[in-house]
Amino acid sequence: MTPAQKSPVAASGSASSIGQILQPGQGPIDGDHYLPAGPDTVSWGRLPCRTDSPVLRIAPGQSVTIDTVSHEGVLEDQGKDPLTYFTGHGVPADQVLTDAIAIAAELARDPIADGPHVVTGPILVEGARPGDLLKITVERLLPRVPYGVISNRHGKGALVGELPRAEHNVSVFTPVIESGGALFGSLPLSEGGAAEVSFALAPFLGTMGLAVDSDQHPHSVPPGAFGGNIDIKLLTEGAVLFLPVQVDGALAYVGDPHFAQGDGEVALTALEASLRATLRFDVVNRATAVQEFGQISGPLVRTDEWLVPTGLDPDLNLAMRKCVRAALDLIMARWGMDEHLAYAYLSAATDFDISQVVDIVCGVHARIRESDFDQPTPPAAADPAPAEKEGDR
């Protein structure tokens, strides 16, 4: 491999250092396998289904380093020319990803009928069968470039018809700056001004999914039981995603890389930017899955602290109800807690967060603290001292 390019530190902050520009094949590749992003290994706007051939086959327990490409800078309303788009924002030409350039030049999508996302895959995991869970462990996430884009494209977002007030297509170029060894996104207080607002990066993959049991390729925007565009920001390094296997071999894929996102993703996108992800894929057989978690019908996240069931529905109220039911089912199956007591626990101790409200299907996820169920039994309250009798004085 050729040495990774270094990203210069710019005084303006327009191209601050992230250490390396991760062009295809350059820089750290930690997995047992490497899957680059390119016209022959990605889908654009649609997700894999059962008729697709895998671009990689692996054994359970193996890891894959996967290059992902953000759709921002690649889309038609941005010129479908990442080199021109990003150099127009002051990015040096050698910091524009060559795989993004190739995808834009060689692939096409229907801007009306298809989604925007570029996903890498599918990956066949040997032995995965419907009824099993595919366990995807996020081992490492590396920014490939020192910049990204936040979009309120075509007025879509939580405030449809209200924002943006003038432009119908708003894409905010967002440089990454480095301070004290940490990386931050940066924004000005007013258009064209100096960057005065910064927020910490917490990279994750917005799309992690499995092929559907259909010969139709799903639109890339709405998530489902198969995963897809779930946009759960807890899926940072060290987190685990469990997905119900839909077809033999699972046919996993990832994309929609984010540098940072607020729950809700209210303007339409997160800070969208390309990542190199190292993921480990394991198969949890159906019997073990049911014993561990009960019947899982949709995505389940696990972090060092939380078990995170999900609810998905076009109606946010129904997504919330589905998430509550999923949380109840999980607690009852995993810890044997009575339903009414589990309901009380959720109300007193569990946060229900809105993953996103902008992907046609809304998402809600619950954060159940596992340590709450591993505490030693509290000591019984001591009996109060008996009252003194008159004759004892």
From TrEMBL:
Pfam families noted in UniProt: FmdA_AmdA (PF03069)
Residues covered by region (Disordered): 1-37, 372-393
InterPro entries given in the database record: FmdA_AmdA
Listed name of the protein: Acetamidase/formamidase
Highest taxon of source: Bacteria
MF (Gene Ontology): hydrolase activity, acting on carbon-nitrogen (but not peptide) bonds, in linear amides
